């Protein structure tokens, strides 16, 4: 468990033409946030200072060359670049994509080298980040390559937790991507995360069906009967409390979700539509299953309100709190399981 100093919380800026920097700065405008962590923004002092002035925020920064020079009690900015790229709020520019990746790569290097403890990423535009050396549909996929472990996109808001079997893939490829091994891997990653990151000892997991009405016994598609059901049974018999497949359409409306610690949705919108509808503004996107902790707000670049000072920072703030909480839960879980309580031999009085 971390004993000395505050948790070092790295922040990648995402798309600088969006609302990422704004929500990050507004989060740390509240000085009480510094009681929980030391923020380290990967960008350039000049850019962050400019956005701070545009937004008329009363913040002060500590510019550093490397994350090893972090000062507790300050908002640290690692100067990843010296030049002044052109900020065009609300525009999807190639330049913004390039610098989003520079910031992300620098932050991930610091995470891998233990210069920061956790990473919170501000939103990127999934289209303008594409480059010869960066061909990922999102942070989750990039981090899965950079860090050890099996990744799971896990959306969390209080006791509502929804993970995805398949995440950034086209709908036409969903059915064939859902294999027995993928289901086993995602359920196991989810179960482990619920225990280790959320402190739930015997988590209950629900799987949503792929087809309408989970296929209606094979009338509307066979995947639920032939792929999901046998794996759910196999995992249940092996001791995991996993149930389903449940018809996705009525699952949330009937409040069935509240009987479970987490829900595994078959594809992106099946999970994210109910999640964002039920929790918009306080939801967090957590990349579970990896050796390091990364969270992000549940929203995107919101170009239409960028640069106007209208962005709500609640979700970013939640992402900061979640990253800290998960980091602490994990450390506690590892410490407890490293030294399990020994059975005491008691001498009985004769
Ligand atoms: N983690 C990430 O990097 C994510 C990135 N994106 C990217 O963001 C871009 C835009 O995606 P959209 O689907 O339009 O979603 P979006 O979340 O950017 O916007 C959806 C709606 O919510 C509003 N909104 C979002 N965040 C807000 C906030 N903090 N305060 C007030 N209003 C807010 C927007 O103005 C818009 O009306 C896409 O390029 C997408 O790839 C989307 C989700 C996550
Ligand atoms: N809708 C969630 C999302 O797109 C998050 O993507 P990622 O960049 O966190 O992988």
From TrEMBL:
Full protein name: 4-hydroxythreonine-4-phosphate dehydrogenase PdxA
The protein's Enzyme Commission number: 1.1.1.262
Keyword Oxidoreductase recorded: yes
SUPFAM superfamilies hit by this protein: Isocitrate/Isopropylmalate dehydrogenase-like
Gene: pdxA
Pfam families noted in UniProt: PdxA
The keyword Magnesium belongs to this UniProt entry's keyword annotation: no
GO molecular function list: 4-hydroxythreonine-4-phosphate dehydrogenase activity; metal ion binding; NAD binding
Family matches, as InterPro entries: PdxA_fam
Keywords: Metal-binding, NAD, Oxidoreductase
């Amino acid at each position: 468990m971390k004993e000395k100093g505050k948790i070092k919380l790295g922040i990648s800026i995402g798309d600088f033409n969006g609302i990422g920097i704004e929500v990050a700065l507004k989060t740390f405008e509240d000085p009480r946030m510094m009681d929980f962590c030391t923020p380290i923004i990967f960008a350039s002092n000049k850019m962050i200072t400019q956005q701070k002035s545009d937004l008329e925020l009363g913040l002060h920064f500590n510019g550093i060359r490397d994350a090893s020079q972090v000062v507790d009690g300050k908002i640290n900015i690692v100067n990843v670049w010296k030049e002044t790229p052109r900020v065009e709020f609300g525009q999807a520019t190639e330049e913004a994509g390039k610098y989003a990746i520079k910031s992300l790569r620098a932050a991930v290097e610091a995470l891998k080298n233990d210069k920061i403890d956790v990473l919170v990423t501000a939103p990127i535009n999934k289209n303008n980040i594409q480059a010869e050396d960066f061909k990922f549909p999102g942070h989750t996929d990039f981090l899965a390559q950079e860090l050890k472990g099996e990744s799971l996109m896990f959306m969390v808001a209080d006791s509502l937790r929804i993970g995805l079997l398949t995440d950034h893939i086209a709908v036409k490829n969903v059915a064939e991507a859902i294999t027995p091994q993928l289901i086993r891997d995602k359920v196991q990653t989810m179960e482990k995360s619920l225990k280790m990151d959320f402190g739930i000892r015997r988590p209950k997991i629900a799987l949503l069906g792929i087809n309408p009405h989970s296929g209606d016994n094979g009338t509307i598609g066979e995947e639920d009967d032939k792929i999901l059901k046998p794996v759910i049974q196999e995992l249940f018999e092996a001791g995991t409390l996993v149930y389903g497949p449940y018809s996705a359409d009525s699952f949330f409306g009937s409040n069935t979700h509240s009987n479970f610690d987490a829900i595994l949705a078959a594809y992106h919108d099946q999970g994210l539509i109910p999640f964002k509808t039920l929790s918009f503004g306080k939801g967090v996107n957590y990349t579970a299953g990896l050796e390091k902790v990364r969270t992000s707000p549940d929203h995107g670049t919101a170009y239409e309100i960028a640069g106007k000072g209208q962005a709500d920072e609640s979700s970013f703030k939640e992402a900061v709190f979640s990253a800290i909480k998960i980091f602490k839960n994990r450390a506690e879980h590892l410490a407890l399981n490293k030294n399990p309580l020994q059975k005491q031999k008691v001498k009985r009085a004769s």
